[in-house]
Amino acid sequence: MKVTGVIQAGGKSTRMGGRPKALLELGGRRIVERVVAAVAPAVDGLLVVTNTPELYAFLGLPMVGDVYPDHGSLGGIYSGLRAAPGDAAFTVACDMPFLHPDVVRLVVARAGEGDVVIPRVGGQWETLHAAYAKSCLPHIEARLVAGRLKIVEFFEGVRVVEIAEAAVGRYRDPALVFMNVNTPEELERAQVLAAHLAQATHG
């Protein structure tokens, strides 16, 4: 089973005043670099979904644009999955600074077991930390064409394998793993957390 890591960097960053969230620094590295470092060891290759490739050229990774622009995260998942050379795409958001390589592996290792392999935390599906098989493409496209952009809606037509919150928690607090940095306040909080994590690792 060949799984491609897909980093979603297509958002508008409106709550961050228009600055691309992925390029903000945290603990001496840009958030997107932290994402790449966490995902790369667990997958067979990486690509970035972005409509501003010039901003991410420094990563030296293949990049694809949105097939259906302005169709939200569902459109991004579709674009990355369609472009992925593997059998499945492990898709993550570009603004999750505390991803953990072992949690990525947990999902990727089970990618062959269903069409969607996805953690569920507190009743919430972590749609941007999930593996999607190529078999999802027609189901997603039908919804994109209909303008139905809620990601979990297409789950009813496919086989979904759930990864339990406890399984994630063995490696790192799920609230931290799946934390997004959307606002300046969240960035400040993330900077404090990053400093604590660095101390715990080196201390």
Quick description:
With 203 residues, the protein is of the alpha/beta class. The chain is built from eight helices and ten strands.
Task: Give the rounded overall mean pLDDT.
Answer: 93
Shape descriptor reads: globular
Rg, alpha carbons: 16 Å
Distance between the termini: 38 Å
Q: Which fold name is given in CATH as the topology?
A: Spore Coat Polysaccharide Biosynthesis Protein SpsA, Chain A
| CATH class (first level) name | Alpha Beta
Strand content: 15-25%
What's the domain count? 1
At the fourth CATH level, what is the homologous superfamily? Spore Coat Polysaccharide Biosynthesis Protein SpsA, Chain A
Explain what this protein looks like in three dimensions:
The protein is of the alpha/beta class and 203 residues long. The chain has a single domain (3-202), classed as Spore Coat Polysaccharide Biosynthesis Protein SpsA, Chain A (Alpha-Beta Complex), CATH 3.90.550.10. It is built from eight helices and ten strands. It has helices spanning 31-39, 53-56, 72-83, 101-108, 137-146, 165-169, 174-177, 184-202; strands spanning 3-8, 25-26, 29-30, 46-49, 63-64, 88-93, 116-121, 124-125, 129-133, 160-163. The strands form two sheets. Strands 1, 4, 5, 6, 7, 8, 9 and 10 form an eight-stranded mixed sheet that branches. Strands 2-3 form a two-stranded antiparallel sheet. Helix 2 links the parallel strand 4 and strand 5 (63-64). Helix 3 (72-83) runs antiparallel to helix 5. The model has no long low-confidence stretch (mean pLDDT 93).
